[in-house]
Design goal:
This protein is an alpha+beta fold. The chain has helices at residues 2-15, 71-84, 87-111, 149-155, 165-183, 191-199, 212-222; strands at residues 28-29, 35-39, 45-51, 54-60, 67-70. Strands 1-5-4-3-2 form a 5-stranded antiparallel sheet.
């Protein structure tokens, strides 16, 4: 009798089906270095992943440390449900969407600066915009991390100026990071647009405060995600 029960137990174990949970729509597979955890102003953990060349907040699918679901994808799924719902169910979903959107915006700000506040995200398959650690392979930067003539045209940097990514990074960290560490970095600003932006509140930087050569360097740094 004991043997029969044991055999039955083994049989049940063998034929029990394995349940595979599919990942939610919008899930992205990340590699090593494409995600990190940080904390917000009240000490709550925020998960961040590299999506489309920038850091965004999200969660990892249960049982996985690579399947990342951005909060924006979760909100989109709720919006789809809300369109199909009615009455009190729709009201509850709309309330959830509002709260989730507010949280996403707050968490995205926390994620935006990257690991340590300055590490560039490794691009996911959605985008291909790496920081030029090997600038010789990227047309907009040369081997010295100077912006090429092609890059100057794209970023609208005056051709007579030498724009260097490393100098721009140093300028950003010393001059801008105090505010933008929490607000996130502006990206892909052209030379002239950046000049207009820094001239108004709350910065009020003049051409004496940040010269054109310095602005060219800063433009190079803020365009480091660009790829041809």
């Amino acid at each position: 009798m004991i043997l029969k029960r044991a055999a039955a137990s083994v049989l049940l174990t063998v034929i029990s089906p394995v349940i595979v949970h599919s990942a939610p729509l919008g899930t992205i597979e990340l590699s090593f270095g494409q995600s990190f955890s940080t904390t917000d102003s009240i000490g709550k953990t925020v998960r961040c992943g590299s999506v489309g060349g920038r850091w965004v907040s999200g969660t990892f699918v249960a049982g996985s440390d690579t399947s990342f679901l951005p909060q924006s994808a979760s909100i989109k799924a709720l919006q789809v449900k809300a369109k199909k719902a009615s009455g009190s169910a729709k009201t509850k979903l709309l309330t959830r969407i509002k709260a989730a959107t507010k949280k996403r915006k707050s968490d995205d700000i926390v994620c935006a600066p990257g690991m340590g506040g300055e590490v560039t995200p490794t691009p996911t398959p959605i985008s291909s915009n790496p920081e030029p650690t090997d600038p010789g392979t990227i047309a907009y930067f040369d081997s010295s991390k100077n912006v090429t003539e092609e890059g100057k045209v794209l970023m609208k940097i005056p051709s007579q100026l030498v724009a260097n990514l490393d100098r721009g990074k140093s300028l950003f960290l010393n001059t801008c990071n105090g505010c933008h560490s929490s607000r996130g970095e502006p990206v892909n600003y052209t030379f002239d647009k950046l000049r207009m932006k820094i001239a108004i509140s709350p910065m009020f930087f003049t051409t004496s405060s940040i010269t054109d050569p310095q602005l060219a360097d800063l433009t190079a740094y803020l365009n480091r995600f660009r790829s041809p």
